[in-house]
Amino acid sequence: MLLLVGLIALVQGVVYVLVSQASQRSAMEHIRQNLGVGARVFQQSLQERIETLSTGARLMAEDYAIKPLLMREPDVATLRSTLYSFTTRVGSDLISLFTAEGDFLASTDPKLRPEELAPFRQLIDTATQSDLERASGYAVLHGQLQVLVVVPLYAPRPQVAAWFGLAYPIDRAFAQKIQEVSQLEVTFLSGAVTEDPRVLATTVAAPGGAELSAAFATATVDAVAADGTTSLVRLAGKPYVTRFEPLPRLDGGPIRIALQRSLTAELAPARALERVVLGIALAALLAASLAAWSLAREVSRPVQALAAHTGRVGRGDYTARITLDREDELGQLATAFNDMTAGLAERDRVRDLLGKVVSPEIAAQLLRSGVALGGEDRVVTILFCDLRNFTGQSERMPPQEALALLNRYLDRMSTIIEAHGGVIDKYIGDAIMALFGAPVPHPHAADQAVATARAMVAALAELNRELAAEGRAPLAFGIGINTAEVVAGNMGSKTRLNYTVIGDGVNLAARLESLTREPIHATSVILSDATVQALSQPAPTRSLGRVTVKGKAESVQIHALD
Q1: DSSP class of residue 310?
Q2: Please, which residues have CB within 8 angstroms of residue 527's CB and are 6 or more apart in sequence?
Q3: Distance between start and end Cα atoms, the chain
Q4: What is the pLDDT of residue 250?
């Protein structure tokens, strides 16, 4: 049920995300189109203003009243008064008069600073050099963005007697006109955007100019359109799709117009639709959940029974059986589950029996590699341990008592061997053959074997103390240890096999055990020189010299473990 509900929720979530992304893409595209229209409206409005100023300036230049004033020594007060009379007619509050060479004569704005006259002179130079009827550009005068136009006064044509310089403010009122047509927020910025901008005029009601400047300075650009014309800019944490249009500033420094549209406002209708879609999706999810719950009631009980039975099997209980009176797939599953449980019980019974017949490591190796005949070369350490005169002792006691004593001894020694990482290859009467480094390789197999021998000597002494307390004769053994490369693997026939090791190194270990019977060596543990050389940690040994053992032509160096 949860899977079905989750799948439905996932599908609905994916649909909701796709609808949301599509709405945002549509909103972004619509805003970009509006921004393009706004940019054209802005340029058209500026061009219309420039044409208006140019027409007014030409009317001034043809007015007879201005020319006589330039024929004699110019009187600044008279010129200024005359220029004032033209402000209403030409639609410009700032009119300046310059000589043909660009020298300042008079202006309706007495506060113009010398550096603010430079843009007019720059336009005059441009018009003169290119023989233009007019020249226009943008500059910041008294902290306000202005569009400037210069028009020549001919006396007569083509002789330029003077230049008129007119300015029209690009202020909030101008921005609002653009806003009325384009439905966009309009901001004029001086300085590099996101570095040190200053708001010259804006239609944004809040925050104020200083706060808006700070917002632009800390704005983050989330994304840029493929054409590079629009950016998703965050102002005071709110996203605005913004288009920056550069303006050629005459007095240096960048000027830009920022045309903006709130992405939140544009997405408002889409978000309302998304909420409706989300409500429908949640209702559908609820209905699906109820349907799934109703369906689950029909299958939950047998599934829970199967789950409980699985837990019992997981804990190793293979005796229980599950019964479902159903003919459908769940009934078939219960039957198959019972068959599987029976198979697991049989497998564990075989594994347990195999683990008692051979060492657990060998049993694991057989289960892992199968029962194919064959072996591999491997360096191992072989330990042989044999009781001395046990046959004679056993003849003097009942068979059951002799077997109990032997099992008591073998159980104690086998526990020590396995505790030190050894693997019991086989029992040969009262003898034990143990392997170190097979079937699982170990880098310190020789150290394990020597430590095992020392522990076995100590364990035998403890066992003899127990036997003495029982009034029994003590036991004695000999241990031979050799390290050599042998063949390890499954040996025998196709119908009966045994994991063991064969090779000359095995025989040498058995011969070393036999040497412990000779009183001249005075030790119960003899190591081959190969084992001593393989030790990573030194052991208390003494050299017994070189001896010749049965089956080897050359003598071997042996050592006693004290």
Answers
A1: H
A2: 450, 481, 482, 512, 539, 541, 558, 559, 560, 561
A3: 72
A4: 80
Look at residue 362 in the predicted model and tell me its pLDDT.
Answer: 57
- At position 403, the amino acid (one-letter code) is L
- The alpha carbons of the chain give a radius of gyration, in whole angstroms, of 53
Long-range CB pairs of 11-15, under 8 A, 24+ apart, other chains included: 12/281, 12/284, 12/285, 15/277, 15/281
Break the chain into its structural domains and give their ranges.
Answer: 2-169, 185-263, 364-561
- Ranges in the chain, pLDDT < 50: 224-228, 353-354, 357, 371-372
DSSP letters of 171-202? -HHHHHHHHHHH--EEEEEES-TTTS-EEEEE
The pLDDT value given to residue 84: 83
CB neighbours of 240 closer than 8 A, spacing ≥ 6?
185, 232, 233, 234, 260, 261, 262, 263
Q: What is the CATH number of domain 364-561?
A: 3.30.70.1230
Question: What phi, psi does 150 have (nearest 5°)?
Answer: -120, 135
Distance from C-alpha of 363 to C-alpha of 378, rounded to nearest angstrom: 19
Per-residue tokens: 198? 């200053």
Residue 227: which residues within 8 A CB-CB, separation 6 or more?
none
> Which residue, 521, 444, 439, is CA-closest to 479?
521
**b/e for 311-343, b at 16 or more Cβ within 10 A?**
eebeeeebeeebebeeeeebeebbeebeeebee
Phi and psi (nearest 5°) for 296?
Answer: -65, -30
Q: How far is CA 395 from CA 400, 403, 477, 488, in A?
A: 11, 11, 18, 36
Sequence-distant (6+) residues with CB within 8 A of 554 are 548
Tell whether the torsion through CA atoms of 233, 234, 235 and 239 is positive or negative.
positive
CATH superfamily entry for domain 2-169? PAS domain (3.30.450.20)
Per the listing, tokens 């009631």 go with 297
| Whole-number Å distance between alpha carbons of 198 and 180 | 24
Which pLDDT score, from 0 to 100, does residue 216 have? 64
Q: Which DSSP helix (H) or strand (E) runs through 457? A: helix 445-469
Is the bond into 538 cis (omega within 30 degrees of 0)? no
